[in-house]
Amino acid sequence: MIENTATRHHQNFLQVIHSYYQLTKPRIIPLLLMTTASSMWIASQGNVNPVLLLVTVCGGTFAAASAQTINCIYDRDIDDQMERTRHRPLVSGRVQPSHALIFAIALASLSFTLLAVFVNLLSALLTMSGIVFYVGVYTHLLKRHNPANIVIGGAAGGIPALVGWAAVTDTLSWAAWLLFAIVFLWTPPHFWALALMIRDEYAKVGVPMLPVVAGNVAATRQIWVYSWLLIPTTFLLSYPLQVTGAVYTCIALILGGFFIKKAWVLLHNPDDKQLARSLFLYSIFYMMLLCAAIVVDSLPLTHQLIISILDLIQ
């Protein structure tokens, strides 16, 4: 029955490609890759090998696409009941679950091979651990059973930062784990803001997101707490680790100030979905700019410019 529906929906090969592309949830992947790239820039002190960057990003892309595809397979029953997900390829019948699983396995295999052969084994193993954690721990064990799903699941989102560092150095330093921690702490405010926006849909399908099981007030309090855990943590890259400099610190301070302000306003208006949406969108913008600040700060040109400015001042 699903096969006939898929045949009816796909009128040409390009539509088939588009359906499989949608399975990977492509809007999520770029943010993950930015953490990988920024980690590589710090680890290489602003002199990242472009070929290494390209191969690592491609490997990360395939791995993330594999994990998201398996997530779509697992969640197709609840996706069918939620407005924002009911048009996904598996729910609408444009792709069969068995075909999607083959696609996911192929992507994971390609990712591991690419990283193990052209980068190093550590980065390949970390990438596979990210898939296993996202699918096995977050999607299977936590998402439908525990309101701490997003908190613990945030570890999967932090793994790309570890992959980037390992790709350059073949080791994991304190700086790499701090980048992991930044993403880990960023994840709850980001996703709980989304959960506040679509609380009714999560309640409808029985997913115990924090706003559903504890209410909006408790959720906004937790967003406030995690925001205050996140922002100071970002400065640890500058001190005591000293892997970033003044440019990153200034940008992180400004971005963090706006993050705290938005969390504060939401704390006092927990039922305002527009404020929740504002924080959700800003959290994406925040992580993108923080990663960009890391890259700019690590460039040799930036260091030379700062030295020149200091010389002029003196």
TrEMBL record:
<feature type="transmembrane region" description="Helical">
    <location>
        <begin position="95"/>
        <end position="115"/>
    </location>
</feature>
<feature type="transmembrane region" description="Helical">
    <location>
        <begin position="148"/>
        <end position="168"/>
    </location>
</feature>
<keyword id="KW-1003">Cell membrane</keyword>
<dbReference type="InterPro" id="IPR030470">
    <property type="entry name" value="UbiA_prenylTrfase_CS"/>
</dbReference>
<keyword id="KW-0808">Transferase</keyword>
<protein>
    <recommendedName>
        <fullName>Protoheme IX farnesyltransferase</fullName>
        <ecNumber>2.5.1.141</ecNumber>
    </recommendedName>
</protein>
<dbReference type="InterPro" id="IPR044878">
    <property type="entry name" value="UbiA_sf"/>
</dbReference>
<feature type="transmembrane region" description="Helical">
    <location>
        <begin position="121"/>
        <end position="141"/>
    </location>
</feature>
<dbReference type="GO" id="GO:0008495">
    <property type="term" value="F:protoheme IX farnesyltransferase activity"/>
</dbReference>
<comment type="similarity">
    <text>Belongs to the UbiA prenyltransferase family. Protoheme IX farnesyltransferase subfamily.</text>
</comment>
<feature type="transmembrane region" description="Helical">
    <location>
        <begin position="246"/>
        <end position="267"/>
    </location>
</feature>
<dbReference type="InterPro" id="IPR000537">
    <property type="entry name" value="UbiA_prenyltransferase"/>
</dbReference>
<dbReference type="GO" id="GO:0048034">
    <property type="term" value="P:heme O biosynthetic process"/>
</dbReference>
<comment type="pathway">
    <text>Porphyrin-containing compound metabolism; heme O biosynthesis; heme O from protoheme: step 1/1.</text>
</comment>
<keyword id="KW-0350">Heme biosynthesis</keyword>
<feature type="transmembrane region" description="Helical">
    <location>
        <begin position="279"/>
        <end position="296"/>
    </location>
</feature>
<keyword id="KW-0472">Membrane</keyword>
<feature type="transmembrane region" description="Helical">
    <location>
        <begin position="174"/>
        <end position="198"/>
    </location>
</feature>
<dbReference type="InterPro" id="IPR006369">
    <property type="entry name" value="Protohaem_IX_farnesylTrfase"/>
</dbReference>
<feature type="transmembrane region" description="Helical">
    <location>
        <begin position="205"/>
        <end position="226"/>
    </location>
</feature>
<comment type="function">
    <text>Converts heme B (protoheme IX) to heme O by substitution of the vinyl group on carbon 2 of heme B porphyrin ring with a hydroxyethyl farnesyl side group.</text>
</comment>
<keyword id="KW-1133">Transmembrane helix</keyword>
<dbReference type="GO" id="GO:0005886">
    <property type="term" value="C:plasma membrane"/>
</dbReference>
<dbReference type="Pfam" id="PF01040">
    <property type="entry name" value="UbiA"/>
</dbReference>
<keyword id="KW-0812">Transmembrane</keyword>
